[in-house]
Specification:
44% of the residues lie in helices and 19% in strands. It has 505 residues and is an alpha/beta fold. The two termini are 46 Å apart. It holds the Pfam family PLDc_2.
Length: 505
């Protein structure tokens, strides 16, 4: 065989293999995947196979590993059985049929009902939020459970970790979870872990990527949840990580870039829901089963957290006042049903007067985008609060690719002034409902990240979230549609490219 014939045979073989891969991709990639994601992956594989195929094999699976999926499925069964006697919504609340349907939807997807909760204050001050958590840990008598995406021991968080160490010395059981990939890039990570071990803190990495120890998975999965539970009686959750507000960056400090977040302190029945989420995540990383407190139904004797843990750095709750109906909405790749996306989208369609959304990363899927735009076309005043300049270039361009469609529908896009990063994740529907937590309005939070969100109705939570959004409105500037329409060709091109890459999941 001549060299020419060998080359021809090799070329033919390569062409046959290339087309075979493309044919297989067309049949495999769209399975259990959103249309936008399928299109992005197929474009990458068909047009740039050398890059697209390895990326798909590394990142393209829409599933987590089977063990974690089984754990979540089994947990949902146990939660559903354990909450059979709990009504879907508190009997003391009068909920509209429309909202009741959304509450029932979320319960069917997560097994968690709407219960009651006492609000000890929604805070937007970064340091005050950490001070509040620190004070609560100092009051702990039995247990402290901490689960936060990013943790670092620095000048802002030192007092919190000292409080954890003091709690261990008092005989308090301290369990701590932190995301491996989310936290490892910050200075002093190994020393931080070693110090917790020496202090007796029972810590574990969430979603560890340690191939040499047999712990390999999709490297882009994250546990993005943020929560603190003390003695099973009081809890804190929100959008804030446990790190100083410039995220340890000298450049951020130099230009004055700080992260802005919110958190909420709660007691009452809702703490049992948060305990259930922590218990599942703890078991996923440790194979250890831990006890959680049962719901105390209305009419039963309830020991308020204030009896054990005094209110710290927040408004004093009116325990005898209106009841907060609160429902925890967990989500993540362990759920095949996108609980946060379905609940959020349903709430968008419920809006009648005002829909105000705060999200650092607004990269919606088709259904959420349709919900927002439809609300605006119905005459609802829709406000979207985002950072003037996002902290990540790709996200900044991807989210701004949606601005024209939003502006055309009449959405008011409010830009929080640079260099600040508006990291708060919340929204309000009229003066009826509020949602806050760890979930962004992007496809990563809907499909790849483990998240928790709190749906609130009645009581005082909705008003406090509204006040914080109104504070954002006072310092933000509204994006001018005419100015936006004149942006340059390079800007438009990078927006389109980043929009396409954002769907690769």
């Amino acid at each position: 065989m001549t060299s020419i014939s060998i080359a021809a045979a090799a070329s033919t073989t390569f062409i046959v293999l290339e087309y075979l891969v493309k044919i297989v991709a067309v049949g495999v990639v769209p399975e259990n995947r959103r249309p936008s994601s399928s299109t992005a992956w197929l474009l990458a594989i068909l047009f740039v196979p050398v890059v697209g195929i390895p990326l798909f094999l590394l990142l393209g699976s829409p599933y987590i590993n089977r063990r974690r999926a089984r754990i979540q499925a089994r947990a949902n069964e146990i939660l559903a059985k354990g909450t059979e006697a709990v009504p879907s919504e508190p009997e003391s609340l009068s909920i509209s049929r429309e909202l009741g349907g959304i509450v029932e939807l979320s319960r069917s997807l997560t097994a968690l009902p709407m219960v009651t909760g006492t609000n000890y204050g929604v805070l937007s001050d970064y340091r005050e939020s950490i001070d509040r958590m620190t004070a609560l840990v100092h009051q702990a008598q039995e247990s402290v459970c901490v689960e936060i995406y990013i943790m670092a021991r620095d000048t802002t968080t030192e007092a919190f970790f000292q409080a954890l160490e003091d709690a261990v010395r008092r005989g308090v059981t301290v369990r701590l979870l932190l995301d491996h990939m989310g936290s490892r890039k910050y200075p002093g990570f190994r020393d931080f872990l070693r110090g917790m071990t020496e202090a007796g803190i029972d810590w574990h990495l969430m979603l560890p990527f340690l191939p040499l120890r047999g712990k390999a998975r999709r490297i882009d999965l994250r546990n993005h949840r943020k929560l603190l539970i003390v003695d099973g009686k009081t809890a804190v959750m929100g959008s804030q990580n446990l790190i100083e507000s410039t995220y340890g960056s000298a450049k951020n400090l130099e230009i004055g870039r700080h992260w802005h977040d919110i958190s909420i302190q709660l007691s009452g029945e809702i703490v049992s829901s948060l305990e259930a989420i922590f218990a599942v995540d703890w078991y996923s990383e440790t194979d250890e089963i831990i006890d959680i407190h049962a719901y105390r139904l209305e009419g039963e004797e309830i020991v308020e957290a204030s009896d054990v843990l005094p209110n710290v750095h927040g408004p004093t709750p009116d325990v005898g006042g209106p009841v907060n109906g609160v429902q925890l909405i967990p989500s993540g790749p362990g759920f095949r049903t996108d609980p946060n996306l379905r609940a959020f989208t349903s709430l968008m369609y419920m809006a009648r007067e005002r829909l105000a959304i705060v999200s650092p990363y607004f990269v919606p899927d088709e259904s959420l985008l349709a919900g927002v735009i439809t609300a605006a076309h119905r005459g609802v005043r829709v406000e979207l609060y985002v950072s003037e300049v996002a902290d990540q270039f790709m996200v900044d361009r991807a989210q701004s690719s949606y601005y024209q469609a939003l502006l055309d529908a009449g959405v008011h896009i409010m830009l929080y002034p640079a260099p600040a990063v508006l990291h708060t994740k919340c929204f309000i529907v009229d003066d009826t409902c509020a949602v806050l937590g760890s979930s962004n309005m992007d496809m990563r939070s809907f499909g790849l990240n483990y998240e928790i969100s709190l749906l609130s109705y009645g009581g005082d939570i909705v008003g406090q979230v509204r006040e914080i959004i109104d504070d954002y409105a006072r310092v933000s500037t509204q994006l001018d549609p005419h100015h936006w329409a004149r942006r340059g060709v390079v800007r438009r091109y990078t927006e389109s490219v980043m929009r396409l890459t954002s769907a690769l999941q």
